[in-house]
Every structure is written in structure tokens, then in C-alpha cells.
Amino acid sequence: MQFEVLAKCHTTRARVSRMRLAHGVTMLPTFMPVATQAAIKGLTPQQVEALGVNLILNNTYHLNLRPGIEVLKQAGGAHKFQGWNHNLLTDSGGFQLVSLSKFTKITEEGALFASPFDGEPTMLTPEESISIQHAIGADIIMQLDDVVSSLTVGPRVEEAMWRTVRWLDRCIEFHQKSGKDTVQNLFAIVQGGLEPDLRDKCLDEMIARRDKVAGYAIGGLSGGEEKDIFWRMIKQCADKLPDDRPRYSMGIGFAEDLLVCVALGVDMADCVFPTRTARFGVALTSKGPLNLRLGKHAKDMRPIEEGCPCPTCSSGMTRALLNHTATLETAAAHAITQHNLVFQARIMGGAREAIIDGTFPQYLKQFFANYFGDAGYPEWCVNALRSVGVDLLEDRPDAKVISGDGAKWEYSDAA
Amino acid sequence: MTSRPLSTVAFTGSSSSGKYGPRTGRIRIDRQDGTPILHTDTPALLTATSRGLVPHLSRDNVHLTQAIRHLQLPFESFLDRNPPVPTLVGGTHPLHTLLGFSPDNHIVILTLRDPSDGRKMPPNGTDFVSGQCTRGVRKVNLTAWKNYAAQCKPDLVVALSDTPFTPAPHSQKRLTKSIERSIAWLADFLRVSPADPSATQPRNVLVHLAGGIEPSARSEFAERLSEPIEQKDAPGLSPPMNTLNDGVAGYVFDLLPLHTALAADVSRSEGLASLDDDLLHASHHQRSSHETSTELAELFRASLDPLPADKLRVINSPTSPHEILRLVRDVGVDVVDGFWAQRAADIGIALDFRFPAPRHSTPEFSVKGAPPPLARKDEKLDLGHNLFDPRYRHDHARLASSFLDGKSSAELTPDSGSPLPMPVCSCHACSPHSPASRMLHSPVDVHAWADVSPSTLQPPFVRAYVHHLLHTHEMSAHSLLVMHNLTVFAAFLSGIREVLRHGDTAGDEFDREVARFEETYDERMSLWNEAERMWLEVEHARGKGRLAREKEKQAASTIGTAVDL
Ligand SMILES: [Zn+2]
Ligand SMILES: [Zn+2]
């Protein structure tokens, strides 16, 4: 991996970087769409490329079950299997083991789970996870970590943090011996729950191994914890992680979360949210999410968003036709997915441009004013951005501020 | 309503064997509004739509698929709002504008009902037809339909007709009523208000040839079409229109109700238990055979006997390519709807057949190692591959053995000029190209794409990948299959045109090729039964054990809906 920071925001911790991997250059900060099963919902890889996206995520747990490693090897790896010529990241599979199977048991050796095919006890070790990710062939691979819910408290959190460090060592060793470390890049995952001193210890340990890892992920968050704690954890990690390594915030996808994370120094994020919400008929716009199933859109001949360059809006697709077809036709989901991915890409592209131009604080203020102007600013966003020198409420003394986790969008059909 | 649809539709066809026989032709659409005049060679493909969309295809993929040229737009789904949304669009091409079709390339045929949806419907009335939308059944009367057509300005429009979607058999009285109504409704549709001097006679109207499976009733309907217009109908039906037939651009044959009625006939005469009488499945119970094709051809000829040969003939919902070939051979049909191929994509089938059929003696079957479809016990080949089948798990070949993919064809012909061993499937699944351009979201994004060449031929998507997508419920499977199946189906029709172009001997050659096709490919469609069964199994395994009966019915009778979001 070649990683080069091209520009830094003069106020916040945000930065623009160029990351060169085996399948090309990706500009950071960026949002990574999730292709769990080796396809972005309903789209072809060519359609995804056309949207200006060149780094996507596959899920190791799922691909290991189906199509299975043997098929991927026959195809020459996951890139060739799915026809994707650009960069690819895989997770370790550990998170899905814990979230999809209630029988998974963590031991020092690895994660013990019941095989979804025959119920037989099966072990996913750190070495096995890396080996599977080698067969998949992603440009960025993740260490197996001991994931605990961000709501867990007590000694289990510390245990998981230390085990994650030990598993990182096993992943590094296996990865280096395999000889794949020249093509595939291993990322460490910082754990430690919501406890600052555990995070700090984890950061120390992992930074000590910086020469053996290509980048760092911040794990164990966005699992239902309070947003005010979430951003403090991100900030603590991003502040301490080395400048010359990309920082990846796992499972982040809401627009406000993305921009706060970027301002705190995060370079990469992924989430199923924009593609999943599209299937339910929700389109993302600069004025907040739009539930196209609502009756009020039935005769609305405007596009989802005026001026949006996505294939959906630029083809003249109206809210009315999306209202007519959303959740009933797969092609409506495709259309909204295309739009939502472009929305995510534009937020991040706009951030890159503003950071380079030295206008990122204004960009943040403008975005939040549009997005939350009517609904009210989430207090945690105001706090988080103040911590890096941007006051969203400056010049807006009358702005409404919502405490807690912020605006609740109207998703129900009131019409 | 002052503005009538303006497009004029002309059809010129030629057959070497007289009024009934294989024929090629050309459709000419002149919208008289400055857009290019569109020509299509026939027999041609009519792509089915659902709720205004080609199922599983986003707009960019519709435009990538050259097979999509004529689109059939059932209006009924839009009856959920009043006034219906397409009537609110305005402009010169409201349907193209609303639905994202290109006036320079796409021809839109507007019809009230989805011709492939055979679900039971409440009876029609003396001046209305019942249509289906998400809010239930809606009545559309003659005036409303005339207004909708005037507001939507389709390239072609099908007049309302009274087809019973109540359980067969239908009494003589019901058939007589159906004919009376259909004639009166057509006359009304063609009538121009005398109060409006600017109105012109529509020249783009298609009419269903009514009469069900009674040859005498069909003849009677056709004779009524060709009778001199009665005085009482005269106001607004002006010369040069001397008969109602003069006012129509072509004829529509809906095969679904005919197949259903024929099947009911057989089970009655054989004393079998009656078919599920509230469900006229397009896929279940309806398989074509020599016998049904012969019966259909007789029924079509009963309709066409009194009528001139120079009008367009459209058939909806054929059930197999065999049936299409025999109707081309024995009647002469010009436009064929794609429901059958599109439905195959819903249930995981990748079509793999050609007309003329490949010759076993040539080595072409093994080119670049794409295994041909399965041979059944009688050695006839399947028409495609059921990609749900576990046998495809490790099959890394392109979708069709009878077509090359773009990449291997490019490798086979390095300027050598030697002919390809077989045609190329130009669909996006077999011959994908990288995009011509990518969106840039910031000025530094040029770094990201500097080394990536645009519009470059990519390797084909393979069976193992689509198999994987089907088993993981990924919608992309169906997008790829629809593009492929429509392209294979269009190539089949183009193969028919090619053989018929061979001049005087074309008729004989065509007959021989039809016979060879029938010998080569399985018409019993065992593959379809298997694919539908596996599709249901995968649905069940997914924890959707009891599909609601309504949903199951809808999935079987309308395309697109078999796939869960
Ligand atoms: Zn858009
Ligand atoms: Zn193809």
C-alpha cells in the first residue's frame, strides 16, 4: 500500500489522502458500499464503477458459506468472481459470527460456532480468518477481533480487548508467512468498548505494531451506544493513531456520522444503510431522508434531488414514479440505491474538495444547516464538531438543538 | 379532448406463401412531431413492463439492452391514483418522459390490461373494463380510456375490448355480447368529435380480435370489422374509413385466455377435474404442443379470413419458441411479446438456444468450453439452464453455449477475418463493457481513475456467479438474466428474419428449420417446472414457508413480482 496525505484541514483533524492498492487508487476520505454477497444490491459492478465508486466491501463470513472458498479459488478470487476490477475490502467474519449466531462461543483459540449447514461445531481461528481472506483476495483484509457489543460492561470488555491484541499478533504472523502481505494489506482493529483507558491501552499495543499493519480500524462502536460517547471514542482513537496510516471507522453510514468522523480524522467508513434503506423506498437527500412511499410523493414530478448527477435523477426519474414502484419493483430499489450511493459519494467528495480548498468548516456548517435546519441540530454533532474547532451554531443563534441521538426522521405513511 | 395521438403506424409485410405463411416486414412509426421516424424489422420483440418498468432493469440497463425497442405498457397499475399519474406528465412524449424511454429508440404500446395477467377479474360492463391496481379493481369506461390515450400520446394504443376473465367455458350468449361490445367500443374509440375540427383520425390503434375459442365467433367479429360502417356510427367516423378495419393499424392476439379456454375444453371433454378455475396461470398448465398450435392457428385464420393481410399482427404471451415458430409458419405474426423470456429470468433460467438450431456435427458446441444445456431422455435439449441447480455451482462458463461472449469472440478474431463459429450475445451479462465515464465527486478524483480505461470489454458473468446470486437472493441475478434472455429472444426472432430473407426458397427452408428446431429443443419445458420448484424451495429455506396465496398467484401471473426485495 502507498498512503500519502495530500491535504489537511487547517481547523479540524480532517485530511485528504491517496491510497494506492493492488487494484488502483482510492481517494480518501471515502464511503465504502457493502456488497455482502459479492454484489451491490441489484447493480452490476459496471454500474457501481460508473457512480465513481472504487472501493467496496465483501463479507468474509457470507462468502465463506456461499459460494465457498473452493469456488472463489476456481474463479481466481472474489474480484474476478464478481467482475470487480477495483479495490475490495473484507472483514474478518468475526462480527457476523457473533451477531448472526447466538451459539458462538469465544475461546482463546478462536470463535467456536455451529456450522449453519450441519450444526457441527466449527472453529474460526485468527489464522483461518486470514486464510479465507487470502482466498477471497481482497486488497484490504481485517484481523479477527473479539467483538463484544458496545453495550457490554465489566471485565468481558477488557478480556476482549487483550484477546484482540493477541489475535492481531497471530494474524500478523500468519499473514507475513503467507507471503501475501505484499499484495493484501492487513488492518488492525482497535477495541476497548466505551472505556477510555481500555481504548488507550489497546491503542498503545497496536501502535507498537505499526510496522506490521497497513492501517487501523476503530471497532466495537455503532452498536447502540449513546452518540455522545460514540464520538468521544472515535476522537480518542483518531487523535492517537499514527498520521501515516489510514483510519477506518466500521459500520458508519448516516450522513451526520460520516461528516463528524471525517472531521475527527477518519478516512474510511462502511455501512449497509444506504443500500438497505433504498429497498424500503427511502432516498437520501441534502435535506434529510425522503420516504418515497409516502402518499405525498404520488404526483410529485420532481427528481429525488434537483441537480443530483446520479443515473436516477439525471434520467428524469420522478418521485411520483418511485412512489408508484418502490418496494414493489426491484428496479425501483436499484434506482434508489444508485441515488443513495451517489449521495454518500458526494458527501465525501464534497469533503475532499473542501479540505483541499481550506473551506471544510464552512462545508460542515452548510451541510448541517441544510440537513438539520428544520429538524434541529443533534446536540452530539454540535459537541463533536466544537471539539475540533467548528461551531455549527455560530451565526445561527436561533437554531434548534435536539438532545440525545438527534433527529428522528418521519418514515411512516401518514398520507 | 383536442389532441389525439398523432403518430401514424404503417406496416409493410411480405410473404412468399400468400396470406398465411411466414413473413417479414417493417414497422414504420412517424410521430409527426420532429422525432426521427422509427423503423423496425419484423418479426420483432415486444418487451413486457410491470408498473411502467422493465422488471429488474434500471434505466441505464434498459438503454444498454439493444433488444429492448418495443415496450408494452399496461396502464392498469396507474389506476391507483385519480387522475392517473401518466396523464399528468404533458409534453410531446409523456410516457417516454415519465418512464425514461428514448423517443429516438423506443416505441411504446399502451394497453389497459396486462396481457399476461390471467387472474380472475370481475365481469366487464356495457361500457367499462375492469383493471387491477394495488388498491384493487378499478373500472375504466370508454371515455376515460380515450382521454388517457389522448393525454399519454403512446406510439400505439390498444382499443378496449371485452375479453372475459371469468372461468371458462363461456356461453354462446357471453361470446355474442363480447363481440357486440368490442365492436361498439372500437367504433367509439375511433370516433372523432365532430365538434372539434382540429382533431384527426387516430392511425395508431390496435384491436384485439375477439371471439374466444369459437371459430364462428371469431369470424363474426372479423366480418363486423370489415362491414361498411353503419349510419348510426357514422358521425365522427369519416372517409377514407369505410370500415372499422380501415381505422386500425393492426391486430392483437392474446394467447393466455385462449390457452386457458383450450385447456378447460380438454379437461372437460376428458372428464378431468376442472383446473384451478380462479387462476389462469401463464406458467402452470400452459404448455404449447403441436395440437394447441394447430388449434391456435385455426382460430387466428378464422379471424383473419375476412380481413386484409397488410396489417400488423401482435401476439401476447406465447408459451414457447416452438409455438412462436409454428404461428410464424402457419399464420404469419409480426410482433411477439417477451413475457416468456422475462418470466424465465424471474425463476433463474438463462436461455441458451438459437434459430436455426446449432448443428451437432459442428464443433461449435465446445468452443471455449461452455457446456450445452441438458439433454432430456428423448435427447432433446433444454432451452436454457436452470441456474438454481447445484450442477452450476462450479460452472465458470458464460451463460449460453450457443452464443459467444464478447471477450472470447474478440480473442478468436484477431483481424483474421475468419468467421466466428457462432454468434455473439451482445447482452451486458455476456459482453459487459466498463462504463464510458465515471462520476467525479471532487477534483482529486482524477487520480483514482487515471489508469483505468473506459468502455473496455470485460469478461462475461458466469453461471457459477449467477448461481451464487440466486441462492443468496441477490437481485443482480435477475438483472443479468433479463438482459441476457431478452437478447437471446431477440436473436431468435432475428434468426427467423434471416432465414425468411433467403428469397423464393425461404418458405421451404424455414419449414425445414422449424422441424429441426422442434427436434433439437424440448418443448415440454421440464426445465421450467424444475426451476419453479427450486425457486420455491429457496424461498422456503429462507423462512418464507407459507407464501401468501395471493402472492403466489401474483408471482406466477405477473413478471418481476416473483423476486423479493
Ligand atoms: Zn440522484
Ligand atoms: Zn447474453
UniProtKB/TrEMBL annotation, chain A:
<keyword id="KW-0328">Glycosyltransferase</keyword>
<dbReference type="Pfam" id="PF01702">
    <property type="entry name" value="TGT"/>
</dbReference>
<keyword id="KW-0819">tRNA processing</keyword>
<dbReference type="GO" id="GO:0046872">
    <property type="term" value="F:metal ion binding"/>
</dbReference>
<dbReference type="GO" id="GO:0008479">
    <property type="term" value="F:tRNA-guanosine(34) queuine transglycosylase activity"/>
</dbReference>
<protein>
    <recommendedName>
        <fullName>Queuine tRNA-ribosyltransferase catalytic subunit 1</fullName>
        <ecNumber>2.4.2.64</ecNumber>
    </recommendedName>
</protein>
<keyword id="KW-0862">Zinc</keyword>
<comment type="similarity">
    <text>Belongs to the queuine tRNA-ribosyltransferase family.</text>
</comment>
<keyword id="KW-0808">Transferase</keyword>
<feature type="binding site">
    <location>
        <position position="145"/>
    </location>
    <ligand>
        <name>substrate</name>
    </ligand>
</feature>
<feature type="domain" description="tRNA-guanine(15) transglycosylase-like">
    <location>
        <begin position="12"/>
        <end position="371"/>
    </location>
</feature>
<comment type="function">
    <text>Catalytic subunit of the queuine tRNA-ribosyltransferase (TGT) that catalyzes the base-exchange of a guanine (G) residue with queuine (Q) at position 34 (anticodon wobble position) in tRNAs with GU(N) anticodons (tRNA-Asp, -Asn, -His and -Tyr), resulting in the hypermodified nucleoside queuosine (7-(((4,5-cis-dihydroxy-2-cyclopenten-1-yl)amino)methyl)-7-deazaguanosine). Catalysis occurs through a double-displacement mechanism. The nucleophile active site attacks the C1' of nucleotide 34 to detach the guanine base from the RNA, forming a covalent enzyme-RNA intermediate.</text>
</comment>
<keyword id="KW-0963">Cytoplasm</keyword>
<dbReference type="GO" id="GO:0005829">
    <property type="term" value="C:cytosol"/>
</dbReference>
<dbReference type="InterPro" id="IPR004803">
    <property type="entry name" value="TGT"/>
</dbReference>
<feature type="region of interest" description="RNA binding">
    <location>
        <begin position="251"/>
        <end position="257"/>
    </location>
</feature>
<feature type="active site" description="Proton acceptor">
    <location>
        <position position="91"/>
    </location>
</feature>
<dbReference type="InterPro" id="IPR002616">
    <property type="entry name" value="tRNA_ribo_trans-like"/>
</dbReference>
<feature type="binding site">
    <location>
        <position position="339"/>
    </location>
    <ligand>
        <name>Zn(2+)</name>
    </ligand>
</feature>
<keyword id="KW-0479">Metal-binding</keyword>
<feature type="region of interest" description="RNA binding; important for wobble base 34 recognition">
    <location>
        <begin position="275"/>
        <end position="279"/>
    </location>
</feature>
<feature type="binding site">
    <location>
        <begin position="91"/>
        <end position="95"/>
    </location>
    <ligand>
        <name>substrate</name>
    </ligand>
</feature>
UniProtKB/TrEMBL annotation, chain B:
<feature type="domain" description="tRNA-guanine(15) transglycosylase-like">
    <location>
        <begin position="461"/>
        <end position="505"/>
    </location>
</feature>
<dbReference type="InterPro" id="IPR002616">
    <property type="entry name" value="tRNA_ribo_trans-like"/>
</dbReference>
<protein>
    <recommendedName>
        <fullName>tRNA-guanine(15) transglycosylase-like domain-containing protein</fullName>
    </recommendedName>
</protein>
<dbReference type="Pfam" id="PF01702">
    <property type="entry name" value="TGT"/>
</dbReference>
<feature type="region of interest" description="Disordered">
    <location>
        <begin position="1"/>
        <end position="26"/>
    </location>
</feature>
<dbReference type="InterPro" id="IPR036511">
    <property type="entry name" value="TGT-like_sf"/>
</dbReference>
<feature type="domain" description="tRNA-guanine(15) transglycosylase-like">
    <location>
        <begin position="22"/>
        <end position="227"/>
    </location>
</feature>
<dbReference type="GO" id="GO:0006400">
    <property type="term" value="P:tRNA modification"/>
</dbReference>
<dbReference type="InterPro" id="IPR050852">
    <property type="entry name" value="Queuine_tRNA-ribosyltrfase"/>
</dbReference>
<feature type="compositionally biased region" description="Polar residues">
    <location>
        <begin position="1"/>
        <end position="18"/>
    </location>
</feature>
